[in-house]
Amino acid sequence: MFVLKNRSSISHIARLQSPKFRQTGSNCTLSFWYYNYGQSVGAAEMQLFVDGLKQHTVLWRAYYNEGNQWLKAVIQLGRLPYPFQLSLDKISLGFYDGISAIDDIAFENCALPPPALRCESPNRFWCRDTKACIDSLLVCDLVDDCGDGSDEDNCNPDLQCNFENGLCNWEQDIWDDFDWIRIQGPTPTVNTGPLKDHTTGTVRGHYLYMESSEPHLFQDKAILLSPLFNPSGNGTCIFRFHYHMFGKQVYKLSVFQRTVSNTKGWLLWYKFGNQGNRWIRQTLFISSSKPFQILVKGTVGDGFTGDIALDDMSFLGCTLYSGNLPTVSTTTSGTSVPATVPMNNCTEKEFVCRASGHCIQMIQKCDFRPDCSDKSDESTCAMEFCDFEDKTQCGWYQPASEHKSGNYSIHTTNIFKWELGRGANLYPGQEKHCPLTDHTTFTEEGWYLFADSSNGEFGHIADITTPVISLTGPKCKILFWNHMNGSTIGSLEVLCKTSNKTSKLWTQSGSQGPQWNRAEVFLGIHSNFQVVFRAKRGVSYMGDVAVDDITFENCFPLVIPGRPCTSDEFTCANKHCIPKDNLCDFVNDCADNSDESPTI
């Protein structure tokens, strides 16, 4: 189907309408291929009209010329319990010159779950009227998965929030940088954020979002606090929520758990970067021997197309706690690690947790996943994120530097090496080849790491390296920002070093301009290795190399869960659980390649 111009006017619309549909299931998606090419081809828009709702909902937009190519659009419809109709509008203002076409329209997973003759598994729920047998994790999650609403009957409203009537019993943190915003419809900035909420799938519904535009800056944080919960005992408290992370400059969403009120707690889950224009469900299994609280933190990225949204947050198997969490004195560190090794029965191949004397495998030390209650197994390791603002190098260190002349080994302070720096400390003229502001705070007071080319000679090398990392997962990658400006810039390399081999993962040479540039380096599965940043000096002092905001993303190794994989997960051959969305995506998510098997 294509658009043919047959008249001329200031503004005209070509409209293609669907039949009327009665309802959809909770996993329904619509896909089609579209072509929008030409100098004055105009925009296209897919709209949703629901019976009983006066205002239509925009589901998808194409902005003007998108090249001489067919592109695929995937629209998340979700559960729509009322009759509805779709309309594809082709909009042109003034002169129309181009071709617009649509083909291969498909609805997927739009039927309600089929009825079952029996539903006897303890991990399943039998729907009252439709007789569907669904996963028990879908019960009381603010989504009508049954199609008759029975999976959402008799739920405790204090354990659910769809934000239709406010924040429920969630609260904004008063110690963060700004607040989450409750909104209907699209966020104010195009090409980021949702067009609709998750609960209703229309502009009528509400959700929370984090605005990434000015005046908010990179790394600004908005934190949402849950109510307090009783210890989970022998059971497990399950937290379900839906998140939306769409935009080129989306940064980070993370979930923490705490048992002390004036701490940020420990990390349960996080996600980096653009995840597409869709709502994604996340399920977390929480255990605690003490009363606890959940913190949901959104972090601003490096620009205005970085909005993050939340909706339909619910708990299952949890009970509310009526007291208050204790506080820890701010005069002493609540996470300090004892210097001496406690009494233990650990072998030489095991690591001793400093607070408890508990034994863990040595491979669990320095793997980005705290296995000791005091996190002592990660205390002397590479940090997951480093912005250098505390004036430390976050565990990165420089091997002993040695420059040789003749038969003598000369140790000198005037050598090419990495050091902490900031714009406020530069001498006049140095800003031409060294950053005037850091990347974290964008101020002259902010710190970064740089290799000072006023020392050393042409071709000299400066290495800075992590402590040994014992094991990483299949999706591990390094994100960092680099600054390479000057007439005689040498090069910057990222290396992977093991006991007997050093391999180059990434390299950049020459001047890259007077700005911070983002770099992303894939690591994947490695064991007992170090990451090295190597700067090579150019022919003169006009060429400092700097790095800032180094992040190890998704680097924790896979762990076999103490539970069966859910219906939304794939069971790997090695018994790990991964989201089904990760199947057949050319990435070894399972760490044994079973998720990429042709027999799936």
From TrEMBL:
The cross-references to PROSITE patterns, in alphabetical order and at most eight, read: LDLRA_1, LDLRA_2, MAM_2
**Gene3D superfamilies, from UniProt?**
2.60.120.200, Low-density Lipoprotein Receptor (4.10.400.10)
Per its UniProt record, what InterPro entries does this chain match? Answer: ConA-like_dom_sf, LDL_receptor-like_sf, LDLR_class-A_CS, LDrepeatLR_classA_rpt, MAM_dom, MAM_domain-containing
Cite a GO CC annotation: membrane
Among Pfam families, the record links this protein to: Ldl_recept_a, MAM
Q: Which CDD domains match?
A: LDLa, MAM
Disulfide pattern:
C140-C155, C366-C381, C565-C577, C572-C590
Under the heading PANTHER family, the entry gives: APICAL ENDOSOMAL GLYCOPROTEIN PRECURSOR (PTHR23282), MAM AND LDL-RECEPTOR CLASS A DOMAIN-CONTAINING PROTEIN 1 (PTHR23282:SF140)
Please give the name of this protein: MALR1 protein
Question: Organism source for this protein?
Answer: Heliornis fulica (sungrebe)
Which taxonomic lineage is given here? Eukaryota, Metazoa, Chordata, Craniata, Vertebrata
